[in-house]
Design brief:
Blueprint lengths: L7 H4 L4 H29 L1 H32 L4 H20 L1 H30 L4 H21 L7 H29 L6 H5 L1
């Protein structure tokens, strides 16, 4: 008995397959392009981006504190660490509300925390790379030196650095996220055109 696949002509339809392939990489490419443009806008308005980031951080911190307080009363019924969750939740709510009411002060505190992180992380990388001398340790030493310099520069320029630091970091992150999406989309396009799993040449085989 012979079996036929009635869907085969639909799969091999030359008008349908290119549309499917274009949708596979075109959507992520456009999304990456828009994300990259958003990153450029965020970099151009670093102070506005910094303020929005501080407000979002305060809102998230307050929301997390409320959830932690709710969890505290649930843990109390089951004999869990009630006071730990309760006091931690109250602290998160208070700090989050403080940042929401005074976003400039919260932004200044976030900038100091980032400066301390850059300095400590750079010092750790520089010291460990010099002590261990593993393969390509020079790159880690270079990263550490740059991080130390950035941390010192941010601390010396504080509170002026609070105006641009957070917004610049957020903008850079958004920009490179868009670049990564575009690169991934172009990789998918190249695979499809070279005979990937959904390409016409592969289906015909």
């Amino acid at each position: 008995m012979a079996f036929t696949d009635e869907r085969k002509p639909e799969i091999l339809n030359p008008d349908v397959t290119p549309r499917v392939n274009s949708a596979a990489w075109g959507g992520p490419f456009i999304l990456g392009l828009l994300t990259m443009l958003l990153g450029i806008v965020a970099l151009g308005a670093a102070f506005f981006t910094s303020m929005v980031s501080a407000i979002m951080f305060g809102a998230l911190l307050a929301g997390a504190g409320v959830m932690e307080i709710i969890s505290a009363f649930r843990e109390r019924k089951s004999g869990g660490p009630f006071w730990l969750y309760l006091l931690g939740g109250i602290l998160s709510v208070v700090v989050g509300l403080f940042i929401l009411v005074y976003p400039a002060a919260g932004l200044g505190a976030m900038t100091l925390l980032l400066a301390g992180y850059f300095f400590a992380s750079g010092l750790f990388h520089a010291i460990t790379s010099v002590m261990d001398r593993y393969p390509r340790w020079g790159w880690d030493f270079f990263y550490g030196a740059v991080s130390i310099f950035l941390g010192i520069m941010v601390m010396r320029q504080w509170p002026i650095s609070a105006v641009w630091l957070v917004g610049t970091l957020v903008g850079i992150g958004i920009f490179f996220r868009g670049v990564a999406l575009m690169a991934g989309a172009l990789t998918v396009r190249r695979v499809l055109r070279s005979g990937g799993p959904t390409s016409p040449a592969h289906i015909a085989r």
